[in-house]
Amino acid sequence: MRGGRRGGGSCRATPRLREAQRVSGRRARCGSNDTVYWLCATGAAHWYPQRIDRKVQGYGCSVCSRRRLVLRVNDLATTDPLLVTEWHDHLNVPKRPEFMLAGIDRHWWKCAFGHVKQQSVPNRRKSRGCTGCEPEDRILN
What we know:
Blueprint: H1 15-24, E1 35-39, E2 47-51, H2 52-57, H3 76-79, E3 106-110, E4 116-120, H4 121-126
Antiparallel strand pairs: 1-2, 3-4
């Protein structure tokens, strides 16, 4: 095989690869599946583990993108403290908002007026609270 590499594909020295080499403290290869810790670029001042090949491909912070749960950083109780005041403790057992990410799963909610509804977190945010209440009485207004 002349002038090429085995395995196909090319790997140029991109800014991400140079950053991987700086972070890992050694010469990293763009296809490396070594995991190193990266400082989040959003200014949130947290570190997250990620493979070098994923970083070179453009993957971002797994904490900010809600792919990795970090307590008191991106859990539901931290990101939506007002919303979780309507969390139904008994119907959602064993789930607790402190130990979960806001996803598309449906959960039970109970508003101050006693309405019990099952909604996903994004749906609950979009409706600004309980759909059984008048819009001006909803918790997120």
